[in-house]
Amino acid sequence: MQTINLLLAGFQSAFELAAFITVVVGLLVGVIAGALPGISFVNAMAMALPFTYAMGATQAMLFLGGIYVGGVFGGSISAIMINVPGTPASLPSTWDGYAMTRKGQVKRALTIAVTASATGGLVSALMLTFLSAPFASFAMRFSQPEFFAATVLGLVSVIAIAKDKPIITLISLLIGMAIGTVGVDPLYGQARFSFGIPEVESGIRFVVVMIGLFAIGEVVDLVASNRDLRPKKTDGKPERVRLRDILAVKGAILRGTGIGCMIGVIPGAGATPGAVIAYGVEKQINPRGAEFGTGVEAGLAAPEAAKNATTGAAMVPLLTLGIPGSAATAIMLAAMMLQGVNPGPLLFIMDPSMVYTIFAAMIIANVLMIGAGFGVAQMFSTLMRTPPAILAAFIVVLSLIGAYGVRNNIFDVYVCLVFGVLGWAMKRVGFPSAPLVLGVILGPLAERYFLTAVANSRQDYSVFFTRPISATILFIAFVFVLWSLWPTLKSRIGRQPA
Amino acid sequence: MTPTVVLEYAKAGFAASAMIFSASIAAAQDYPQRPIEMVVTFGPGGGADLMGRQMARLMESSLGVSLPVSNVAGASGNAGLTRLRTNPADGYTVGTLISLTVASWASGLGDSKPEDFRIISVVQNSPSFLFVAANSPYQTAEALFEHAQSNPGQLTVATSGYGTQDDVTLKLLAKGGVQMENVPFQAPGERYASPIGGHTAVLYEEPGDVAQFLEAGQLKPLVVFSQERHPAFPDVPTAAELGHDISGLDNFRTIAVHADTPAEIVGILEDAVSGAVASPEWQDFCASTYSCIEPVTGDAAQTMITDFFQLVADQLNS
After folding, report:
1. A167-212 tens-digit pLDDT
2. Residue range A320-368, pLDDT digits in tens
3. Which residues form the DUF112 domain (chain A) (predicted)?
């Protein structure tokens, strides 16, 4: 009951003019950025981050939340219309979505995609609303050992999710953790890896790393690769889409939503694995699974629902534990910390109105997305005529201003440029950058929680295993590692002669 | 963007262009002619930030120019001090210098020394206390110290870190036979919550930072590390009364400039700070954080910083 009252109050603040406009602008920015190939919702959020410096904490979250929701969908517009996924998470949508476009069913494909995405996102936002508070009150029992265990789970799942290349992901994560140690250590106040340079003692802020890798790195790659992005002519007459076309794929939408909600909660997962897994599952379950890839509606609906269903779910660990599970939620964490707000179980007691305004805004954003999706799809061909060089120039300038604005330090601008070049190089050789950023964030958290926990137990290292909640979380982390290594182990064992 | 935000940007933009065009015509007799940058050496929201912003706002009226605040956080306040030291010594950059940063020099951080800065005025000062949760088994300092004496190292104290004045205080207590374990919490919120949540036995903190928990009755002060009892907590004994003469490790906050700043400019700034401190707004502000003092200026301020630095350095190296 209390949840409902708080949520109603949240809706009230979210419908205030300034707040509402913020959500709508964020949503539009997200859909447009998502639709532009080469600019994903993560890049868009990284670029938008500096704009939040001047906002309050709640408004900043509404803006970024809008971009997140819109951007995760936006990628599908270009996936369906020109066979180029605007963001990686929209890759599965090209398989059946573009096939439908080639059959002249572009409008039908877009309608199914936007409806499925909105449904997935809405269910996920509701789950966020009703699951977070109970989970946060459970997390009130957490002390330093439990937070350490939860951070370890976050680190482990980054690797476990990247099943295709766990070693490279691990290396990326470890590099990130090493970068996170630069600067003043959290307990002794000693400078580490500063090489005697005073500027380096200030440390490398993950916000700056993020802007460099995600905004500058990507945009350099966009210009360098010089892709032709104009929509190709499709033949076919205007078609009509009816409600029953959508009802026909409701099974696929619901299955996709369920999978997305589950995968989104896991730290380290995100929209892309959610969409890919949902596509795979739907292919097995659906009676027309064998025809997938030739323009089957269900093959488009399931991954669309799943990727937007990860959005709300991914915010559960962020808001309740202060542990971001993905690049997008890491940017939200940055925005909150820049405003002096520390997410975690205490936030639900200290500032419930902020939390529930965010919930309400996520629900509103998903409903409004239907309109925003169609609107941007209409103007898509115009959008594609913007020369990438002009876009890139804007983004680089905004990014550098953003890096400076974090703490008015010119050193951060140099750091941002270094990571921009690095980000481009990483993209070129296919080295994943998201684990690195998560390493920069989670590494120092893990260190801090570990050292304080050990000091508090008078140097007794067994504290992590003797406390029940901490032990349980660490056990889950252990199972995760086994599960991710299982395919490799199985093939090893299989090859051994019995 | 709200209109105020736009205005803030316009102000900042004006400040930036003014700095570029008039850098060459700065002279002591007509100081100040253009906006003065207030470098807050910590991020938004903390004690130093509140002080810097409040001071900047109150100094504007007497100086007749605006004082835009920039938060240059990092390295326990040393990142901002680097900026203060490397900008010209013309009085157009003032900064916050607080005890935590001075203590960090003693433990080897940064490359600043007390003589690199001219302290305009020490504007806030607060001794630290030991606090326990309201339902703690130790309701008096005697009971707490007695338990620590018979069970060395068993009680845990939440502090801000090793090598800080928190650490020095605990080391001095241990020398007097009261040995407790230092448990550093970097995040202030977690530190304040730890005794309330029962995760540590004691909290070492200045009262201003935990005012809300004191008003709510969740934390109880047991002992103050000061020469005299604190006027706001007349019932709380000093450590000296209990046989541990520990003082001079107070949390102070100052406004400082580059050491080479001309004396006339230091004088003008000193008057502005004194005027600000006398204002009712400032008195309300410092009362709410239990940190009001008579401003300490001139050589007395300089000596205060140097002595503090020496005390911490001696204790950490002993």
Report:
1. 888 999 999 999 999 987 777 777 788 787 777 877 888 888 988 8
2. 888 887 788 888 988 887 777 878 887 888 788 889 999 999 999 999 9
3. 21-438
Inter-chain CB proximity A201 and B184 less than 8 Å: no
pLDDT tops 90 at residue A126? yes
Question: Which is more confident, A421 or A136?
Answer: A421
Place of tokens 């190709």: A232
**Residue A21's domain spans which residues?**
2-495
Cα A288 from chain centroid?
31
DSSP A41-57: HHHHHHHHGGGGGGS-H
> Looking at the 3D structure of chain A, how many domains does it have?
1
Let me know if residue B30 belongs to a domain.
no
The CA-based angle A396-A399-A404, given to 5 degrees, is: 130
**Same-domain status, B122 and B255:** yes
Q: Which residues of B touch A184 (CB under 8 A)?
A: 74-76, 109
**Contact list, A144 vs chain B (CB under 8 Å):** 190, 199
Q: Do A456 and B156 touch (CB under 8 A)?
A: yes
Question: What is the interface pTM, i.e. ipTM, of the complex?
Answer: 0.70
Domain boundary among B217, B242, B267: B242
Contacts of residue A9, defined as CB under 8 A and 6 or more positions apart, other chains included, come to A353, A356
pLDDT, average across residues A385-414: 81
B101 & B199 share domain: no
Task: Give the residue from chain B lying closest to A51, CA to CA.
Answer: B1
Can you read off the two tokens belonging to residue B85?
Answer: 């030291």
User: Which one of B183, B202, B203 would you mutate to disrupt binding with A, by most A Cβ within 10 Å of its Cβ?
Assistant: B183
Q: How many helices (H) and strands (E) does chain A have?
A: 24, 2
Q: Is A181 on the interface with B (CB under 8 A)?
A: no
**A412 near A210, Cβ under 8 Å?**
no
Average pLDDT on A406-421 reads 87
Q: What is the mean pLDDT of residues B151-156?
A: 92
Q: What residues in B contact A408, CB-CB < 8 Å?
A: 70-72
Task: Please report residues of A whose CB lies closer than 8 A to that of B181.
Answer: 455-456, 458
Q: What is the mean pLDDT of residues B103-114?
A: 83
CA contacts within 13 A on the Cβ side of A105: 19
Q: If you measure CA to CA, which chain A residue comes closest to B103? A: A189
The length of chain B, given as a count of residues: 318
Please give the Cα distance from B140 to B150 (Å, whole number).
16
**pLDDT greater than 90 at residue B155:** yes
The pLDDT of residue B7 is above 60: no
pLDDT higher than threshold 50 for residue B21: no
Asked if the C-beta of A351 comes within 8 angstroms of chain B's C-beta atoms, the answer is no
pLDDT tens for each residue of B115-139: 899 999 999 999 999 999 999 999 9
**CA distances from residue A175 to A16, B57, B113, B225, B266 in whole angstroms, order as listed:** 44, 43, 34, 44, 47
Q: Looking at the 3D structure of chain B, how many domains does it have?
A: 2
Is the predicted pLDDT of residue A25 greater than 90, yes or no? Answer: yes
For B54, the token pair is 């409040």
* Structural domain for B202, as ranges: 129-242
List all residues 6 or more positions away from B211 whose beta carbon is below 8 Å from its beta carbon.
B288, B289, B290
Nearest CA in chain B to A147: B190
Same domain for B235 and B267?
A: no
- B136/B231 same-domain check: yes
| Entry pTM | 0.76
Residue A408 forms contact with B (CB below 8 Å): yes
Contact A452, B199 (CB under 8 A): no
| Residues in A touching B70 (Cβ below 8 Å) | 408
What pLDDT shows up at residue A115? 92
**Whole-angstrom Cα distance, residue A182 to residue B116?**
26
Higher pLDDT, A237 or A468: A468
Indicate if B111 and B134 belong to the same structural domain.
no
